[in-house]
Amino acid sequence: MTPAPASPPSQPAVVLLSGGLDSTTVLAIARSEGFAVHALSFRYGQRHELEIAAAKRIARAAGVVKHHIVDIDLRVFGGSALTADIDVPKDRDLSSSSILANEIPITYVPARNTIFLSYALALAEVIESSTIFIGVNALDYSGYPDCRPEYIEAFERMANLATAASVQGRTRIAIRAPLIALSKAAIITLGKSLGVDYSQTTSCYDPTAAGEACGRCDACQLRLKGFSEAGFDDPIRYAAAPGAGVAR
């Protein structure tokens, strides 16, 4: 009997995994495409460090090749409500698209995605990967300069000038941002179709010590709105019923 031909080895990919809704969906996309996933998370001094525990749960359940957790401390610079003693905005009326489109909110962490993608690029070179996945979204976070399509395109160009593998012609780095043009509702619907368990994710910028989401920050409001529009219940725990500022 002739043995069946061996399956080609899966190509490695780096997936930036925060433990949030978007990055978890991206991880599911990468796995659905057959990539051997190396998940990369950061403990960077964020006030919502509970996301590291979420990322560990998600990576373990997904069966990634390896979950890399990098310790850096962006509190040395501050400049953001996530890394400094600055209040996280609550109960903002996000129903006006101009707020999300034109304002850079105080929850923006200076150069965070550039720092994260630089680490991902280094890991990609070491594991000989040509693909990096990131869960940025330009519809909900277009106010964040490092979540826009032109930023991703520019970083990809830079990556292919900066790495030995690219310069030597051995590979070309692709920065994949499959959620960049999707609404939160569309992201959730896609994730559900891929079997994502959103009860394991966290999105809140200012969770309680017990891990409950506040229901009032921008991230919570956008998450709740997305689940409502997608027709699903949000399975995570909230500290209180969402306030009147939630965009519906």
* Low-pLDDT runs: 1-7, 243-248
What is the fourth-level CATH superfamily of the domain at 12-89 and 109-197?
Answer: HUPs
Mean pLDDT figure: 90
C-alpha end-to-end distance: 62 Å
Which strand order do you get reading across the main beta sheet? 3-2-1-4-5
CATH class of the domain at 12-89 and 109-197: Alpha Beta
Report the biggest beta sheet as strand number plus sense, adding barrel if it closes. 5 strands, parallel
Give the overall shape, derived from the CA principal axes: globular
Q: Which series of helices and strands comes N to C?
A: EHEHEHHEHHEHH
Structural class: alpha/beta
Strand runs, count:
5
What's the layout of helices and strands?
Elements: E1 12-16, H1 21-32, E2 36-43, H2 50-62, E3 66-71, H3 97-102, H4 112-127, E4 131-133, H5 149-162, H6 164-167, E5 174-176, H7 184-193, H8 218-230
Helix pairs in contact: 1-7, 7-8
Describe this structure in words.
With 248 residues, the chain is α/β, with parallel strands linked by helices. The protein has a domain at 12-89 and 109-197: 3-Layer(aba) Sandwich (Rossmann fold). The protein starts with 11 loop residues before the first strand and ends in an 18-residue tail after the last helix. The protein has helices spanning 21-32, 50-62, 97-102, 112-127, 149-162, 164-167, 184-193, 218-230; strands at residues 12-16, 36-43, 66-71, 131-133, 174-176. It has a five-stranded parallel beta sheet with strand order 3-2-1-4-5, with helices on both faces. It has eight helices and five strands. The chain is globular.
